[in-house]
Amino acid sequence: MSDKDLEARHLDTLDRDLGRFSNLEYAAAYISRPLVAPGIAFVFIVLAGLAAALFLGSTSQTLIVVTAAVFGAYMALNIGANDVANNMGPAVGANALSMGGAIVIAVIFESAGALIAGGDVVSTIAKGIVAPEALNTQASFVWAMMAALLASALWVNLATWIGAPVSTTHAVVGGVMGAGIAAAGFGAVNWEQMGTIAASWVISPLMGGGVAALFLWFIEARIIHRDDKIAAARIWVPVLVGLMAGAFAAYLALKGLKQLIDVSMGTALLAGLVIGVLCWAIMIPVTRHQSEGLENRNKSLKVLFGIPLVASAALLSFAHGANDVANAVGPLAAIVHASTTGDFAGDVSIPLWVMLIGAFGISFGLCLFGPKLIRMVGSQITKLNPMRAYCVALSAAITVIIASALGLPVSSTHIAVGAVFGVGFFREWDSERRLRKARMAIPEAEHLTSDERRRRKLVRRSHVLTIGAAWIITVPAAALLSGMLYWLLSVFAG
């Protein structure tokens, strides 16, 4: 064999070996990819614990506070992974925002809401579920808050894994209730308050779905089904955007800025009216300019709803960050306060370092684990376009205002997802109605079989059942888990 042949065989062998190494590297990268997000999350949780140790210093309570900070960071990650999807899902599903753009906007506005308008003061017992005097000692209080925090985080983590958007507030309430029962018996729980929370399971999605369906009907009747859609849009889009701006102004005044400014319902509605009229006037020339040269078809209308939809997603994120950061840091702040002062019956202020754990945790959770739920809410329950997604966002703001005026307990998560259901079920009803009209006009038209009817359902029933079941069992599941964790903590750490 010549030297040239030997060299060729050597190169072939080398190529095969390099190919094997490339395949091995590719396989290793493929296997390790799912571990990147959990790895980053783990690093964040460790850093939260180290930050707690740094700010508290070396005391007899350092280990307890560090453990609580770890649990709080874990809860914040889960809030970002689950809850934020309700704000961003419709805009992403309607293709008004890319997944990357949605995450960037949500991170900025969630963090801003948490840090600027997040709860300066939270009750030591979430939502008045358990009377503080029922927990006789500081140790009982700390273990109860610790158990509630970890139980709610574990439950929200499980819900995210199965693809069910749940109320993190309900999870925390369930956790506090379960720990309170384990610590002081059933008499320690405010059952009247629990009844109002249970009522919100029904009130929130029905109100959200009804308001969203009503606005979709209005848009279809006044714009989509008109002969000249563009002319109709020039009239009604500024009105709808002004209504949205006014609703969000009132919504933020009542919910997002309540810790900065004490605003009454009347003042919030007046501010909303002024801002709504101002935005309506601004949008008249803007809409006319945007609609120039558009074809007279439904696809053209999507352009006019894109910017309002993005703005609504940002405002919802700000309000969510301001309100729901307390679900992660409220129990943590209570533990810090009780551990450092010995007082567990009064209100507590949230230290800045605790608020930072909540704000950054929500942002990291969204970036690392949020896309799954965003896709599910935005596109897998029912198909959304900008008009339908706009109805979902507007419903979220208006329903909260109506519920606040009536004194009804509602969940922002249930409202948003209920609005998606409402839009989908309205489309089903409207499609059936038009089909019946067509059959009456043409009696000899072919009738649909039952199988064909099932295929034409516009809302995926599997998601309705999964999400509904998760909503119903969130409080009892978190309560049961929290009671078990409280018993373990009090036995092994007490």
Describe the structure.
It comes from Paracoccus amoyensis. This protein is mainly α. The chain has one domain. The chain is 80% helix and 1% strand. It contains 15 helices and 2 strands. A two-stranded antiparallel sheet has the order 1-2. The termini are far apart. About 2% of the residues have low confidence.
Major sheet: size, sense and barrel closure? 2 strands, antiparallel
Range of strand content: under 5%
Number of domains as seen in the coordinates: 1
Helix content: over 70%
Mean pLDDT across the residues is 81
Identify the strand order in the major beta sheet.
Answer: 1-2
- How is the quaternary structure best described? single chain
Number of helices: 15
Roughly how many Å apart are the termini?
81 Å
SSE arrangement, N to C: HHHHEHHHHHHEHHHHH
Query: What is the SS-derived class?
Result: mainly alpha
Total DSSP E strands: 2
Overall shape: it is elongated
Low-confidence stretches: 24-32
Radius of gyration: 26 Å
Concise summary:
The chain has 494 residues and is mostly helical.
Set out the fold topology:
Elements: H1 3-56, H2 62-82, H3 85-93, H4 99-117, E1 121-122, H5 138-162, H6 168-184, H7 191-224, H8 229-256, H9 265-291, H10 298-341, E2 348-349, H11 352-380, H12 386-406, H13 412-441, H14 450-455, H15 461-492
Antiparallel strand pairs: 1-2
Helix pairs in contact: 1-2, 1-11, 2-5, 2-10, 2-11, 3-4, 3-10, 3-11, 3-12, 4-10, 4-11, 5-6, 5-10, 5-15, 6-15, 7-8, 7-12, 7-13, 8-9, 8-10, 8-12, 10-11, 10-12, 12-13
Protein name: Phosphate transporter
Keywords: Membrane, Phosphate transport, Transmembrane, Transmembrane helix, Transport
Pfam families: PHO4
